[in-house]
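pipeline/complex-builder :: batch 7 item 3
reading input block
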Amino acid sequence: MTLRAALATLAVLVGGIAAFWLGTDGFRALTAESARRLAVMRAPRALPPVTLEDQSGAVFRLEYYRGALVLIEFVYTRCPDICPLLGVSFERIRDHARQSGLRDRVALLTISLDPLHDGPAALAAYADRFGGAGGGWRFARPRDAQELEALLKAAGIVVKPDGYGGFVHNAAIHLVDQEGRLTRIFDADAVDETIAELERRAG
Amino acid sequence: MLWTRPSPSLSAARAEKHPRGRSCALVAVLLLAVAVTPPMARWLEAMLVRHVLVQIPLLVGAGALLASLLVPRPRGREAAATIPALLLALFTLSFWMLPRWIDAAVGDPLVDALKMSTLTLLAGLPLGWAWPRLPFLAKAFIWANAVSMLGVMGWLYMSAPNRLCNSYLLNEQDALGAWLMGLAVALALAGAGMAFVGVNRPPRALGSPRLEA
């Protein structure tokens, strides 16, 4: 092997490993989902203004939650699999919050990513599957398609039609801090981890 | 097949200049056009299997064909000199196999352009340049490694319980896994066929171009 080939090999090795290191956040994020979670944890992201309409038809804005910790889930009410699972996690967190010091300090917000179908009635019916709205939990749809798109983009949610009239989307528990920034993202079933983080932040 | 050589006279004629340079260039441009023209690219990238097993091979293939055109055919034993080229191709290919960057390429036109150019120039080109310079054993080594790498990747994609790409469905991921496994089996069978059923050349043509030139 000539010196030239050896040097070139070394250069390619260094460059290749550097590209992989940078491209995977130090080999920690091999998927877009883990990259999103890592990025949010490192640099909390401001969410854009969104006007929402809840299960009772009341209109409010996402910014009204400033000052409180908010857990957000993105779902659509016809979702057969991951959304109900996420809903059960939210129900458990709400029930825990009701009996603990977290009451009044944590709000839960379910946002529909299918606002055309999920009107107040559909949202109310969906809420009933998890013990109904209340206890700081609202079910809402964005009023404006462009605002929804901006919100999904900011949060890093990718929604794709599944070919059967439904959607495929990355589902997770999103924690928004008192300044309105998306700051942590947990697995859909990570109830204990989420509660621990809430208690830590609520002090 | 890939590591059998053409007859010595033909090979000697090709030592200086690629005789089918023009048609190679034409095919390369055609492959590139199919892979990168926006409507075609969108269609290819709409499904995971088409993205990974059609578009990416088209880009790499185009680069490899261009290599046979841009650089003169090999004259001597230069196997060691191909190591950086092969590594470069390996790094580039594996980088674009990362679910995160497959997703990014679908979501961001700039990343997609980077994917297309690097796969052509940093994977296809070095592969096409290195392959004719490799001795038989090195080709066999790479072939065998390709079989196991495709098999492992296929297994990973098939057995991953979660969606790895936000842009693709879980069943597409399973399908890609199955196709990769199938490809591994096909490569293994083709390799075995060449090794045992006499498609390979006698030892004289062990792949050192100098023997023939």
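note: The radius of gyration of chain B is 18 Å.
queue -> next item
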